[in-house]
Design a protein that fits this description.
Length: 489
Amino acid sequence: MSAVAAAAVMVPAPRPSVDAVVDVLPELYVPEARQWLSMSAGRIAPEGYSWMQAVHWVARSGLYRPRRYRSHGPRSFGPTTVLVAQLLAELSPCRPGVEYLMRRTGLSERAVQNHLQMLRETGLLAYVSKGTRVSGGLPQASEFARVIPVEFDEALGIRTVGEGAGRRMTGIAEAGRELMARLAKLAARKVRRRSTTSSRTGSKAVRKSASGAGVTAVSGGSRCTPMGGGADGSSTAGTTSFPPENKLASGGSKSPVPNKSKAGGRRKLNSVGRRFQLARELTQELDWLRGCSVPRIAWVARHVADAGWTVTDVKGWLHLRGEAARVRRGSGLLAVLLSNAVTVLDTPEKRAAAVEQWRGAQEAARRHRIQQVRAHTERCEGDWQAPSSRSVQREVEAAFAQVRETLNGSRHQDLDAAAEPPTPTEAEMVLLHQEAEQRLAVGDTSLIVVAIDAMGRETAERVYGEHLVHRALQLESCSRSSLMTIGHP
């Protein structure tokens, strides 16, 4: 045996690395039919931290290639997918809405759907209930179960007990402990959204782990020191330069820490913001602009908004210009009324005078309405007064005399006690009814009301009839209400 052969026998073969176990595993892919919890081969993650360890393992293993199953969407299981998974790990139950993930990640709707599909195809998510879209109702979000794939358990040598998705972990092989420790550090680290701008002096956007795979996406200028530990030993704190102490003393130049706004964080509106603010106030305070489009009103009132007009100034100008009683298109009418407004009221003093004139007109109109209501109330709810017309008084006296003569004639007749008193002749009844109907037609109930007060309702009904008496009493009760006005000749 030669010396080279002897050396080959004495030197043992190198021990395979931890990541070498991944190379012998099959490709990671779950078809759509098996993406339900009842059909999943994985086990339910006990908490979000353990599930994030499996997420980082899938991201680093390279067992999943999205472009092998579709020609569009993301090219790999990268930091953005890990960011979406990190948001899902915070939910309990895991029932995210697409709009919620869009708002938290800044991704589009299609991008969020693609990353959720990748998590399902790798066996990390499984449907508990699928979302529904009911016509006329709100869409229901899908509910997921966070699942640890069976390939993860095989790669790290994790021992489990139980059956199905409810089995639990009882131990781990010695060969998988090192990889589990590295995954624990990755799971404890927070992944942030990738910055769209880069800095020349900042660190790289994607930090590399010991194996060279991208783990996080943190911009270089976001923090001075890394939050939490990691597998890499690099730090951006070495490149951070602090200003000299004389710059931080009182009376020096600018402070490196920006001062917070004293006005509660409200930004000053630019010209476009002032236009939309004025348009919104106009649509709220002018009745004939209710329902109009705010952007259209902002474009119509752009000249007065740029000149610094307020909604009160616009009201003062509209009072001088004159408003229409019937409005068909509010934005068009406003454009006509605001023409040459900036030219006529070109100074704040002129605008203030117009506002004072408008307020004076508003106060005068208010007082006029109060006087009208007071006069109507006194007229309708006061005591009854006799008619002032002499001709009406003569007609009322004649009617009373005729009724008294009829009643006095009936008393002198020798009739039975049970017999009814004699009624007026047919011609007299016709005249009485015509006179009463004419007066009731114009709202005058004095003839029948006086007869009821003098002779009683039963006698008045025998003379004028139940219908006319009932109608007169209804009109009399309505005239006492402040909600109805009855005209008199």
